[in-house]
Structure prediction request, 857 residues.
Amino acid sequence: MFTRRTFLKATPLIALAPTVPEFLVRTARAATPQADARDLVVIQLDGGNDGINTVVPFADEGYAKHRKTLQINKGQLVKVNDKIGLHPAMADAGKLLEAGRFAIVQGVGYPNPNRSHFESMAIWHTARPDAENRPDAGWLGLGLDDAPKPQGGAPASVYVGPGTLPAALCGRKCIASGLTRPEDFLLAPEADPRPAVPTADGDNLAAFVRRISADAFSAADRMAEIARGKDDSSRYPASELAQHLRLVARMIKAGVGTRVYYARQGGYDTHAGQFGTHFRLLNELSGALKAFIDDLVAAKLGERVAVLAFSEFGRTVKENGSAGTDHGTAGPVLLAGDRVKPGLVGETPILTELDPKHGDLKVGIDFRRVYATVLEGWLGVPAKAALDGTFEPLPLFRT
Amino acid sequence: MADTTAKPNDVWAPYAPTKDAPWDLRRAAHLRRRADFAATWEELQRDVQDGPQAAIDRLLAGKARARGVPENFQEVAGVLADTADEPGRLKAWWFYRMLFGPDPLTDRLTLLWHNHFATSIEKVDRAAMRQQNQVLRQHCRAPFGELLRAVLHDPAVLIWLDAPANRKGHPNENLARELMELFTLGIGHYTEKDVKEAARCLTGWAIAENQFREDDARHDAGEKTVLCKTGKWKGDDLVTMLLEHPATSRRLAWRICQAFMGEKAAGETELNGLANGLRQRDLNIGWAVEMVLRSRLFFADVNIGTRVVGPVEFVVSSARMLELFEQPPSTLLLADWSARLGQNLFTPPNVGGWAGGRDWLSTQALIGRGNFAAALVGGKLTRAGEPTDPSALARRHGRGRDLDDLLGFFCELLHGTPPATQWHDRLTKALGAGAKLTPEVARRAAALVLASPEAQLA
Prediction:
């Protein structure tokens, strides 16, 4: 197929310059991705992932004590070391670990855990545990506000998935976009208001709608390019998450210029009959991660991407009466990528030494230390304003 | 916590036309876009002529629609519901009600409670979801206690929140937590201990033969302390305590204003005033809705054009304004489009429902709204696939003499006022200099108006 991109690449742009819109000229210039840039992909595990059955401390005597029906046999686990194993559904994550591309930050949370899905998710998104001074912007959006704007009018961040943009991506200046399929960005010519794209200043609702409409139409052009381009990677599982990561890979490979991507996987709120659901979710997650990393490594872009997966909280140490678990506290943050320092980070939470205040896992590592490391150590943007404070970095990346 | 000085009769004083706030096309259109799914041109003219009281009376009585309601509406709706053998058809049934039914305010309130008690067909079967919709519809204007108990004693929400798994000695906190956080008090008015104790109160709630049942053998009959009150509480005692708590009335006031008021139009004083009024009237929802719709604040400038139109409203309103009654769009496709724009009926994103407001306007949703408008006026959602003729619609109402007058007509259908200069200039520029008024240009004009940023607010 003769796409607009191949057309532009094949045609001397100088000759066309007066008639080709500026954004297309820039698109063609940006068409080759740079291997030395740094991109971040965040995966939000919605509902509260049971970290204890994700990264299983099988040697801890508390495990057998608190997990009766949900206990996984040591022999079935994907071995990490002589005390810890990954859930049997995570064989693909195990392979990433073997290849030195997978890390687990253990016991991550924040002081005074909140067990409401919405409050706790808001805390992870804004990096502000205190509801009083929470901004209407998130840690990535605020971080990207201080980064150079991507070239060619690309949005600073892209959320792939249905529904609302995650609050984490909202900034004061930077543009965040959302899409489910690239086709979503092809605007019917009858409804295309250009050349008269409205612009607006100010903070009132009408100005907001005009501004976000203008952003939508300009982001649409870049995404429409992707939609028309060909996709040569076929080794992705069929799960929704894998397909969303595949789209992220397409954007990275096409040199869109966006540096932060965001995807979600729902269903972790396993209050009853947890085993089957949790198995499927972790299987999809680890399969999608491996396919994504393999795809980018094959494209020689493995070095530029890091993936971070988190959930709003872990689950109760003790299982409930319906073969499920209720809302808990700390949990693991998972990292994948060629430049991730592989293995375990931080102390393994001890299941027999629970926090006396709430009776669940103690928080070992404040999540803002992970964020600070990712912002400064990976994306190279200042973390202090985004996180409203200074947090000690962790050894998460190879230099 | 509640402001006891805020009297509902002061802050929610009734509207009467004045020089600064006249009863005109603008206010008539505003009323119908907030409390109906927009109106036809004739209905707007009738509302303007008859005055605000009559217009609001008709909405409250389910008699606001002058056109598009089929004589056999109830019968058809019944058949559609009975034959809804897959989720898409159930959604289409609801869209049929919203588009053709005589009582749009009831549908808007049913939608409000579907969001409040957000339950999803992803986990709950179709029959139970339909039954829940009936429950929401039946009690949508009742005292909140009646609505809440009816919802809690209905299988859908119990399955959704794992109530049957919650039994003596084996508590499951799911229902207890969401009952307090989402259905009644709201975050910050209870402790983690309260959640655990509330879960004990709710042990033994079960479903047998598709009916709510209390299973005494599974109930924890011991003493519990919830919200500082100790007793051998059962589930219904817990619900009573939650209903009596002032935070519940405050949350209800917020929920009702979220549905009918614009961004920042109702502040602390107004919310507290409405909450106080609700408490004095057994949390009567119908009272609060009427109070809001008749109020001076509802018709004040700060409340006009300051609310983001939700996807369901956008989809249904567009079809109604353009009077697509003879060759109506497929309601299956309307349901699909609404889902693509971010509001998949019977499938809210999570237990908290749709956040609404500015969150509706994602990049893909904005582009999707433009594409929906183009498909709708292009006739792509009908069986015959014939393009609509918006210029004929305008002519039928004595408008559309030229392109300017046609653009004016569409904008007046939306907002009751001609487009502001900036908007007008953008529209004419996009249509191209010297465009002649052909049916095709008229369609493009209609699609452009509906895709404009201005059309996303009402």
